[in-house]
């Protein structure tokens, strides 16, 4: 990953952009590790599978539903991954104060 493109004369902006890039990269790594726990997946290989989907959110009463339609050829693996994430986030929501 190239982080050197944020160089400016203002060192503070440089530091802020480098920190933001590192933070987002760490969030993505954590998300992918939750999605695919059995192996390490780099951002460049996991991004096409996990980002090539169209989502539609609907609300009815107090319930919110998210419908995700995978555009990737490996949509069965994506369905399994998204189900695993849903189970984890439901568990997290019920156990966190």
Short summary:
This protein is an alpha+beta fold and 97 residues long. It contains 3 helices and 2 strands, in the order H-H-E-E-H. The protein has one domain.
Keywords:
97 residues; alpha+beta; single chain; two-stranded antiparallel sheet
Structural notes for this entry:
This protein is an alpha+beta fold and 97 residues long. The protein has one domain (4-95). It is 57% helix and 16% strand. The protein has three helices and two strands. It has helices at residues 11-35, 43-51, 75-95; strands spanning 53-60, 63-70. It starts with 10 loop residues before the first helix and ends with a helix. The model has no long low-confidence stretch (mean pLDDT 80).
- The fraction of residues in strands falls at 15-25%
Task: Give the domain tally.
Answer: 1
Mean pLDDT: 80
- The residue fraction in helices comes out at 55-70%
How far the N terminus sits from the C terminus, by CA atoms, comes to 37 Å
Order of helices and strands: HHEEH
Q: What would you report as the Rg, rounded to the nearest angstrom?
A: 17 Å
Biggest β-sheet strands, sense, barrel: 2 strands, antiparallel
Spatial strand order of the main sheet: 1-2
Bulk shape: extended
Helix count? 3
Annotation, overall tally of beta strands: 2
pLDDT < 50 runs, ≥5 residues: none
**Helical/strand content category:** alpha+beta
């Amino acid at each position: 990953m190239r982080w050197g493109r944020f160089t400016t004369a203002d060192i503070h902006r440089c530091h802020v952009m480098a920190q933001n890039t590192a933070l987002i990269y760490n969030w993505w790594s954590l998300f992918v590790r939750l999605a695919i726990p059995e192996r390490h997946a780099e951002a460049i290989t996991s991004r096409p599978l996990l980002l090539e989907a169209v989502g539609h959110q609907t609300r009815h009463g107090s319930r919110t539903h998210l419908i995700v339609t995978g555009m990737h050829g490996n949509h069965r693996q994506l369905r399994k991954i998204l189900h695993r994430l849903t189970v984890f986030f439901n568990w997290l929501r019920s156990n966190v104060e």
